[in-house]
Write a structure and sequence with these properties.
Elements: H1 7-15, H2 42-63, H3 68-75, H4 82-103, H5 119-128, H6 138-161, E1 186-194, H7 201-211, E2 217-220, H8 222-230, H9 234-240, E3 245-248, H10 262-276, E4 281-285, H11 297-303, E5 306-307, E6 312-313, H12 323-337, E7 340-345, H13 350-361, E8 368-369
Parallel strand pairs: 1-2, 1-7, 1-8, 2-3, 3-4, 4-5, 6-7
Helix pairs in contact: 2-4, 2-5, 2-6, 2-12, 4-6, 7-13, 8-10, 12-13
Length: about 375
């Protein structure tokens, strides 16, 4: 089992010293049982989406009253890049306004349906939002409010440390894929850190995907791929990933922003995957922890490789986040962002349990699971 290091913990070690390696102990999770209705139609999805957008907007608005000292204390950092934080806030507000408008089309007579013409009106609506317009939403409102405060802390913390410590929070180059470029209700399932050894979690997950006729994207580690190849054959590797897509995650799970061998890591892993999986391989690279150099765009372009990050993280690698919690976190973020690249890990059994729950919850509400083969 690969031990995963908290990106924020690594950030603190790099920027402030080990003594300040505190930060959040848990990631945002939510019990969605307080939401009174299943997401069985497009209207149901939109109603829940409006509610999550307003709750997150309320949390975002509240942080704007914090000065740098208060924000550092809240996020557990010694240094804070104000420009990066402001840039993230602006991007979030732009996305929230667009998403709320999409969720509010033809919503007359439905809950949380107040039209907004501009960002100022959205901010006013968020400021007065409680989630308790009806008694049926009281339990959800309390759970959602707590979730979005913690989730926002995660995002602002990454922004506070960026670009000194790179992550998925911002693009470093316009060519990088983040997930917000997808169409409304379109989501791509991606899985990191594999493959497992034979008959392990990777095999189990792929069986689940095939049962649902899903074609998803796996970011493999070169050393893990080579280990699996050594106990099988190129033909068996092609059979394993048949119908799926494979990008690379580097040769080792190490930060590619500080590793002297990062270029070799990318080249070795892409050559191995491409040579073994001619039909399944896609020239996509996902940096471990989202960390890459600010001057790396030229290298990736020369290699014909594109960086793919993510904007919806299940946090399923954490021992404190079970399969159900990971699924409910992802569902909530799907409602909030309405499009995106979803990150799971195929080296843990949780993904094979969480993915069917998401598929079942979003069968007839307009959600489209992107076929990875269309990325070619």
């Amino acid at each position: 089992m690969r031990i995963r290091v908290f990106p924020w913990l690594l950030a603190l070690c790099l920027t402030t010293g080990v003594a300040q390696a505190a930060g959040p102990l848990v990631f945002a999770t939510i019990d969605r049982s307080g939401w009174p209705n299943p997401l069985t139609s497009a209207a149901d999805f939109d109603t829940a989406s409006r509610a999550e957008i307003l709750m997150f907007s309320k949390a975002l608005l509240a942080t704007e009253a914090l000065d740098d000292k208060a924000l550092k204390q809240r996020l557990g950092v010694r240094q804070l890049d104000r420009k990066s934080v402001d840039r993230l806030r602006q991007r979030f507000w732009d996305q929230l306004l667009g998403n709320y408008r999409q969720a509010s089309q033809d919503c007359d007579g439905q809950p949380f349906c107040l039209q907004v013409r501009n960002l100022g009106e959205l901010r006013q609506l968020a400021a007065s939002f409680t989630g308790a317009s009806k008694a049926a939403y009281g339990a959800w409102g309390e759970a959602s409010g707590q979730f979005h405060q913690q989730y926002l802390n995660e995002q602002l913390r990454l922004a506070a440390l960026f670009p000194a410590v790179s992550s998925e929070i911002q693009r470093m180059d316009p060519a990088e894929r983040l997930g917000d470029e997808l169409a409304d209700r379109q989501f791509l399932l991606t899985f990191d850190d594999g493959p497992s050894l034979r008959d392990g979690p990777t095999d189990q997950l792929i069986e689940v995907l095939r049962a649902y006729d899903l074609h998803s994207l796996f970011f493999v580690l070169g050393d893990s791929f080579q280990a699996r190849l050594s106990q099988s054959s190129a033909g068996e590797m092609r059979e394993l990933y048949d119908g799926q897509c494979v990008g690379v995650h580097g040769w080792e799970h190490k930060s590619h922003s500080s590793w002297n061998e990062w270029q070799s890591s990318v080249i070795r892993s892409t050559n191995l995957a491409n040579r073994t999986l001619t039909n399944e391989y896609l020239p996509l690279f996902r940096p471990p922890y989202g960390q890459r150099r600010s001057d790396s765009a030229g290298f990736f372009k020369a290699q014909g490789v594109q960086v793919m990050l993510w904007n919806i993280d299940s946090q399923d690698w954490s021992k404190k986040v079970g399969a159900e919690a990971a699924a409910q976190r992802v569902q909530t973020l799907m409602l909030l962002w309405r499009r995106g690249i979803i990150l799971f890990h195929d080296t843990h059994a949780k993904a094979a349990q969480a993915v069917p729950a998401l598929l079942k919850a979003n069968q007839h509400n307009g959600v489209q699971w992107l076929d990875c083969r269309t990325l070619r």
